[in-house]
Amino acid sequence: MTGQQNRFEFRVPPRARRTDPETSRRAWIDNLPRAGTQRRRVWDALEARGPSICSDLCEATGIRWNSASSRISELIRAGLARDTGDRRMGPDGSYQRVIAAVTR
C-alpha cells in the first residue's frame, strides 16, 4: 500500500450514541471495513470534480447519501477535506454544504 492510500485508512472513533438502538451500533461496526475505501472514493471525486455537495458526490461515487455524509465528516476531521462555507441547493431543494478536497 502506498502512503497515499494509507491516508484514508484510519480509525474513526465510534459515533454511535448511548441512546442509539443496537441495530445502529451493529451497522456502524459492519461498515468499518468499507469506510476507508469509501473515504478514498469520496476524496477522489472531490479532487476530480472540485468543490461539491454531498448529493453530487453520491452520484459520482454510487455511495448512499448517509454513508457519503459520514465519510465527508471523517475526511474533514482528518484534515483531508474542508467545508468551503458555501451552500448549494441539492436536488431535494435543501441547501447542502460545499466541500473541497485538501491537497498536500
Keywords:
104 residues; alpha+beta; Arc Repressor Mutant, subunit A; 15% strand; globular
Describe, in plain words, how this protein is organized in 3D.
The protein is of the alpha+beta class. The chain has a single domain (22-101), classed as Arc Repressor Mutant, subunit A, CATH 1.10.10. A two-stranded antiparallel sheet has the order 1-2. Helix 2 crosses helix 3, helix 2 (22-49) packs across helix 4 and helix 3 (54-61) crosses helix 4. The protein starts with a helix and ends with a strand. It has 4 helices and 2 strands; from the N terminus they run H-H-H-H-E-E.
Q: How many domains make up the coordinates?
A: 1
By DSSP (H or I, 4+ residues per run), the number of helices equals: 4
Mean of residue pLDDT values: 82
Q: In order across it, which strands form the biggest sheet?
A: 1-2
**SSE pattern:** HHHHEE
Classify the secondary structure makeup into a structural class.
alpha+beta
**Per CATH, which architecture?**
Orthogonal Bundle
Unreliable segments (pLDDT under 50, ≥5 consecutive)? none
CATH C-level class: Mainly Alpha
Oligomer: single chain
